[in-house]
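Objective 1b. Sequence-to-structure analysis of Hydrolase.
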Amino acid sequence: MSDRPSCRIAAVQMVSGPDVDANLAEADRLIGEAAAAGARLVVLPEYFPLITPDETAKVRIRERDSDGPIQAFMKDAARRHKVWLVGGSCPLEADVPDKVRNTTMVFDDTGRRVARYDKVHLFGFVRGGERYDESATIEPGSDVVTFDGPCGTVGLSICYDLRFPELFRAMGEVDLIVLPAAFTYTTGRAHWEVLLRARAIENQCYVLASAQGGVHPGGRRTWGDSLIIDPWGEIVARLPEGPGVVVADLDPARIAEVRASLPALKHRKIS
């Protein structure tokens, strides 16, 4: 069994709109709520600074790496609230002029950036009048990213990455997988929970999914259901819809217990 102490983690759920300043103010309020509940690591949802029917809007607010108001907000919020902050996703400049990288950045509790992950898998979906094509405005990343923090080793992913288990296997043995997301209502209702629980079970680690959840200005509806799941696949905290925070304790002893009783990670034959 592990002798590391438990570590409180939090998922922030939002219903972001087209006003960046208003979204940042709401994110700051919710980060503060998570910190007041004792969270040491807080995860914002995908697209927390901006959701709008105009898919080119994120290109107009894209920032250079390490320079811009959204990144400055995350750095400052982590420092002020004294938490490790996983910044959902922020649009950064891409190699292609009219596209962005959909990027998660991690800041420690002093405001120092410790990790960057660019979303690898780009969502595309068509059903009736519902249509999404992230590749029209986003350039994919290619790197698997983990970092070490107060809650152990953490693997980074974003939304549609959830459907590609090979990404999570490539992370190695991690204590926690985080997945900021803006799942559609249609796909979320069908697959969200079962896929998240599968990732926790097969990697024998905690999974934290921080979601957009509700009806956004412009009419888009996201699934929500922010979840924290333990290594046995048990849901330990959830928020079905609307803005708010869910918290739970990541217990290293629980990870060790699951891996000792069912050593599936050691039984792997194909890598």
